[in-house]
Amino acid sequence: MEKRIAVLPGDGIGPEVISSAVKVLEVIARRFHHSFEFVYGSIGGAAVDAYGTPLPDETIALCEKSDAVLLGAVGGPKWDQNPADTRPEKGLLAIRKHFGLFANIRPVKAVPAILHRSPLKEDLVKDVDLVIVRELTGGLYFGEPSRKTHDAAVDTLVYTRVEIERIVRSAFDLARMRRGKVTSVDKANVLQSSRLWREVVEEVRAGYPDIEVEHQLVDSAAMKLITNPAAFDVIVTENMFGDILSDEASVITGSLGLLPSASVRTDGFGLYEPVHGSAPDVAGKGLANPAATMLSAAMMLRQSFGMEEEATAIEQAVQTIYEEGHCTADLAGSGVRPLSTEQWAARVAEEVDIQSVSNSIMCSYV
Ligand SMILES: NC(=O)c1ccc[n+]([C@@H]2O[C@H](COP(=O)([O-])OP(=O)(O)OC[C@H]3O[C@@H](n4cnc5c(N)ncnc54)[C@H](O)[C@@H]3O)[C@@H](O)[C@H]2O)c1
Ligand SMILES: CC(C)[C@H](C(=O)O)[C@@H](O)C(=O)O
Ligand SMILES: [Mg+2]
């Protein structure tokens, strides 16, 4: 299959984790006889520096001509004092909005070989397999913020019935393919937009009698995510709550460097990016964990290209390398010598290749 992938490395550790994921995708292409064309574009702080804007028209055009987008991360101290329009993060919000990527799918799954790296008890963590379905193109992120005076600022939180309904349906559809449970997270005891959210969830659930539904307020949901994370299956929530809960959920697995995400719309086009940011504190030092970006690439193969076997090959290779005891600095406990980003990525790429050899040996015996 021929696929054109827009690659947007961005800032900080973005280029490091992206180059790792691209290496693995190159092995996948070779092994499964696909042709992947990687076309590189600029976003975030790098684009502000080169083009004066965090999302240049050239980047939009390149993504429009591609089958999917793979993104690293944006942002960093260099641009933190920029005005709103030339902040790197603005580029990320703009690309999500431009392509109508309203559903941000953030799976959180315990990795058996590294359960001990979670700060939570292994017993709590071992069965965790949940997905946060985060609304991505509405809410506070896209209100009309304004700095009223020197001493006052305002952000508005708007949600329409249509925006809520489509994300809630995505969550119910996903739950049907999983364990059949949806937890809707809101702040309906305070916010009007949350009361509308809850109303729409109640309407949508009528069409899904097979799905178990619960409502949780975001503050107690944040607590339950840590005290009993295995109780969750699909969590559906608005933009800001989803952002916060997904970073919190990364603690369950042991590192933010493990969580992938897909930002999608209904026609299969998607932007795939790790949940983490540009990690300026570790950038350029070989300390970044590229697993989240590799697993995002796996989501791209499965969700945008329908390449199930190829996606599984990446996921299995990541698991195997952890089982062999190799990890990057974020997951190395005391007494464990971590591999650099590049070394760890090379092990995963090698493993994807080795799988192909063992598979063909298996075939020759069948
Ligand atoms: N999607 C994105 O592009 C995205 C997401 C979050 C934050 N950001 C931006 O990133 C910048 C830094 O934000 P932050 O520090 O709050 O969040 P962050 O996610 O970049 O980092 C938080 C902590 O996790 C660590 N970390 C994150 N990813 C890691 C990885 N792959 N491997 C090893 N360690 C990792 C970092 O070293 C840091 O200690 C800000 O400019 C922020 O706006 C961008
Ligand atoms: C960088 C920022 C705009 C972004 C968000 O809040 O959506 C990030 O935190 C994320 O989780 O993708
Ligand atoms: Mg975030």
TrEMBL record:
Its EC number is 1.1.1.85. It catalyses: (2R,3S)-3-isopropylmalate + NAD(+) = 4-methyl-2-oxopentanoate + CO2 + NADH. The record marks Y141, K187 as: Important for catalysis. Its cofactor is Mg(2+); Mn(2+). InterPro entries: IsoCit/isopropylmalate_DH_CS, IsoPropMal-DH-like_dom, Isopropylmalate_DH. Pfam families: Iso_dh (PF00180). Pathway: Amino-acid biosynthesis; L-leucine biosynthesis; L-leucine from 3-methyl-2-oxobutanoate: step 3/4. NCBIfam families: leuB. Homodimer. Catalyzes the oxidation of 3-carboxy-2-hydroxy-4-methylpentanoate (3-isopropylmalate) to 3-carboxy-4-methyl-2-oxopentanoate. The product decarboxylates to 4-methyl-2 oxopentanoate. Belongs to the isocitrate and isopropylmalate dehydrogenases family. LeuB type 1 subfamily. This is 3-isopropylmalate dehydrogenase. It comes from Sporosarcina jeotgali. The gene is leuB.
